[in-house]
Amino acid sequence: MSLVQQCRQWLHQRANVPLSPNALAEDMATWAGTPLGQAIIEEERASIDELLRYRFGYHLCSFSHLRQNDFTGESRINHKIQMIQLDALDNVVSEDMKVDGFSPLPFDGSRLPLATDSVDVLLLHHCLEFSSNPHELLREAQRVLIDHGHLVITSFNPLSVYGLISNLARFTQSSQLWRRRFLTARASRDWLQLLGLEPLQLIPHFYRLPLSNKTLLNRSRWMESAGKKLGALNWGASYTLLARNDVFAMNAIKPRWQKPKSAEQFASSAIGRQAKRSGPKLVVTNPKPTSPAHK
């Protein structure tokens, strides 16, 4: 076997080692505690707040490997669900995994344990990069969202200085943080459109150099304003993408000569349609027996 073939085999084996959700959460928490991680998360949080501030509904679901972080502080939706991915042999949500104000809900990382058309807003914060099947995760997101529900995705940008450094770190670092997929904003938009999710807004963020020194990071804040002026190039370290679930029901076209509804019939049908969304209950499918029951 040649040296090139050996390198390819090693890269293939390294890329296909299953990720441990609990170990990944620990590595993400360690990264988030560094000056660079804090600076990137600060920019991401500002973008997410901007998008969630004007999204309304009954149920909001959030999934992030940064389990102790609440990225929905600006949302006006009262009922919030925290999706927690656990290891295969772990079915208990410990107290250190929970976020105040959220209903914790464990799942296996593939099928979302939520009923179809039940969630108004879904947030996936750095989830697609670490998913074994990101297409399936997006398909599940489209399934659980109501018609005209909103999906917010945050992902690292491989077409950036930070992305290039991350690409090199995956060969030299053992942390699971670097064993992620590289999803460009264009690829994410294409996937969303194939599933009937209409991309509405893309916000790139963190244009500074990925330095580990806090003082140098603060001195390079001027790069943020310069990068935003060239935002169309999208060379920020990460990006946040807002999409809407545009699923339209096909209604039969009635003949023009059909007798129109009376005022009473029209009012009763309108009231009936309004009642369907007056107070929906979120149905959780196959919840873990050890997780808190949601009523």
Automatic annotation (TrEMBL):
Residue ranges of domain Methyltransferase type in the record: 105-153
InterPro entries: Methyltransf_11, SAM-dependent_MTases_sf
One Pfam family of this chain: Methyltransf_11
Superkingdom in the source lineage: Bacteria
Positions of the UniProt region annotated as Disordered: 259-295
GO molecular function, one term: S-adenosylmethionine-dependent methyltransferase activity
Keywords noted in UniProt: Methyltransferase, Transferase
Protein name, UniProt field: SAM-dependent methyltransferase
Species per Swiss-Prot/TrEMBL record: Pseudoteredinibacter isoporae
